[in-house]
Specification:
Among the domains are: about 160 residues, 3-Layer(aba) Sandwich (Rossmann fold), CATH 3.40.50.1000; about 150 residues, no CATH class. By secondary structure, it is α/β, with parallel strands linked by helices. About 35% of the residues are buried. Strand 9 and strand 10 form a beta hairpin. Helices cover about 35% and strands about 15% of the residues. The N terminus is likely disordered. Keywords: Hydrolase, Magnesium, Metal-binding. It holds the Pfam family 5_nucleotid. Belongs to the 5'(3')-deoxyribonucleotidase family.
Amino acid sequence: GTVRTLNFPGYFFLTPPLYFIPDLLPPGVCSLLNPAAIYANNEISLGDVEIYGFDYDYTLAQYSNLLHSMIFNTARDILIEQFKYPEGLRKYEYIPGFAIRGLHYDVHKSLLMKIDAFHYVQLGTAYQGLKPVPDEEVIEMYGGTQHIPLYQMSDFYGKGPSIKQFMDIFSLPEMTLLSSVTDYFMTHNIEYDQVHLYKDISDAIKDVHVKGMMYKWIEKDMEKYILHGDETYAVLNRLVNHNKKLFLITNSPFSFVDKGMKHMVGKNWRDLFDMVIVQADKPNFFTDRRKPFRKMDEKGSLHWDKISKLEKGKIYKQGNLFDFLRLTGWRGSKVLYFGDHLYSDLADLMLRHGWRTGAIVPELETEIRIINTEQYMHSLTWQQALTGLLERMQMYQDAESRQVLLEWMKERQEIRSLSKNLFNPQFGSIFRTFHNPTYFSRRLIRFSDIYMASISCLLNYDVNFTFYPRRTPLQHEAPLWMDQLCTGCMKTPFLEEMVHIR
């Protein structure tokens, strides 16, 4: 390699020769990320997968955002009409871009916030009502720190004693309603009990689902609410044509799933599946052995007979995974299950049962399109450069250097805020805080072998394709900043200061 000296006091850098293998890069190769790609956290060969399992909502059926406004409005009206909340709440409408998935909510503080993989609140992303809380107030609320200890934060499923994590796509209207009602009480100086507020909104949202209101809206206008039906049809047919076995485990009722699948796949959709399990009560389905399977007819009537085998073409209600495994013998890594909820769909399957898992993350498509913009690439590159300069500039203690350092820190902070706002002005990306992965990201990596924007991404790959995760460098393996390389020039600069301590 050639040795070049860079004009940074006390440093010189070795730059090795670069070898290019043109054949590896086809002509006209695109340097942008592909929103329709499948991304791997763990190596997985589809050739080894014999059985494909699916959740229904937001996995086989993707819904349009119009649904969120309907859920918000209906739950808001339930609060007013049944829980006797103030009539003034009717002026609040759903705000489509307000919340993002994976946020935490501190029930006792009415605080909605984004937390990183190390349990630190990302400053600038803590909201009470619809207004941000100043950083110093957030730090004061948590006893002089941004850190929230594990016991307070959450159990395995994201539900702590006072802090809840919203992992579900259906929870976007819930977070917006919590923020809107809090905003109303705060702007009108009305005293309220934070625990009651959380519980009431949670119950009102639950009503929308449990009483089947949402199912009715979707059934009435499938064209309006269900997206990409043709792609769902194509994925399932392709798998069956390659002799894969398919099953469905959903918490939704049969009549709703049946209508949606007929709309997307056709009236004989059940012929594609070896097993259909509805109202499964996930995540309890994966952990609780008590509920047996019940056979169900198409009209929804339950049979009383004991289930000793699971038959193709039949519909089953409830049940549990332990009976499912015993009756099918489908174990380990020959099963790949897709779902959108990291906790109630994927966590137990991966950690307890050794199935392979695929996370459906619809937000991925939008986020990748933003990452591909010139504005984002420029700001990220400059951010990285500034960070490296800051790290090196710390060495110089003179007044002029300190001043430059402060200016660079300010500039870096401005660029970081700018990058965050490209994704969502309130909370930024669902995958990252400024530089760390989010708590959501860490869970995504922990509980899924592969992740993608929708199951239609499978159509871009051969059925025997092997996904290899990219070897991303650990911090000590590939320094971004060449000054971390040992070139024999950086000894221990503060050694002289320490000598007199002996």
